[in-house]
Amino acid sequence: MTLRSLPAVGVLLVAVALTAGCGGDDADPPSAAPSVSSFPAATGLPDAPTPSAAPSSPAGVAPPPAPRSVAPSAAPQGPAPRRPASPPPVVLPQRPAGAPGATQVITAFRAAGLKVPHPKDRSVDCGPDGLGLGCSEIVATDAVTVYVFPDETSASDLAETWGGQSYRRGAVVLNYLDAKTPAADRPRYEKVLNSLG
C-alpha cells in the first residue's frame, strides 16, 4: 500500500463507519425535507415502530424505508347478493289431451246438483315441494278430491294405493279418503265423471 492510497482508504472507512453507526436515515443531507416518521400521524393511528438500524447496501446507499403499517379499516361492504324473492315456480306435467281438468270436473258435479263445498286448488301438492305425486292438477272439496294425472298408468297406480276409497276414469281419480261423502252417493259422482269423457 502506498502513501497516496492512504487518504482514499481513510475516507472510505469514515464513510462506512458513519453509515453503519448512524443508520440509513442520517445519510440524507440536513437540508433535505424531514421524513414522514418524524411528525406525529394526523390520523390518530399509532405510529409503526421504526427499526433501530437499517442495513446498508454495498454501494453505501440506504434501502427505502419500510412501509408504514395502517390499522385495518372496515372493509367496504357492497350490496348483499340478491336472492330471488320466491323460488321458481314448479312446472307440473300437462294433463293428457282430451282429459277433463280438475276444475271442469268440479263444475260438472255442481251442475249435476252434487255437493262440492269449499273447493281449493291444491295443484302445488303435485310437485316435489308438496306431496310429490307427479299429478297435473288437484282440486279438493269437503265432498271429494279430484286428481288429474299426465297419463292413465300414473292414475291407475295411485288409485290402487287408495283401494276402495277412490274411483278412476282415464287419467282422473276421485279420492274419498278425507271426504264427507256417504258411500251411497259416490256412484253419482262417478257417473258425472264418466259423462265427461
Task: Write structural notes for this entry.
There is one protein chain. The protein is of the alpha+beta class and 197 residues long. It has helices spanning 5-22, 102-111, 152-161, 186-195; strands at residues 120-121, 137-140, 145-148, 166-169, 172-175. Strands 1-2-3-5-4 form a five-stranded antiparallel β-sheet, sandwiched between helices. Strand 4 (166-169) and strand 5 (172-175) form a beta hairpin. Residues 32-42 have low confidence and may be disordered.
Shape: rod-shaped
Q: What Rg do the Cα atoms give?
A: 45 Å
Intertermini distance: 123 Å
Overall mean pLDDT stands at 73
Number of helices: 4
Question: Which percent bin holds the helix content?
Answer: 10-25%
Biggest beta-sheet profile: 5 strands, antiparallel
Assign the structural class, choosing from mainly alpha, mainly beta, alpha/beta, alpha+beta, or little secondary structure: alpha+beta
Secondary structure: number of strands: 5
Strand content bin: 5-15%
Across the major sheet, the strand order is 1-2-3-5-4
- Detail the poorly predicted runs: 32-42
Reading the helices and strands in chain order gives HHEEEHEEH
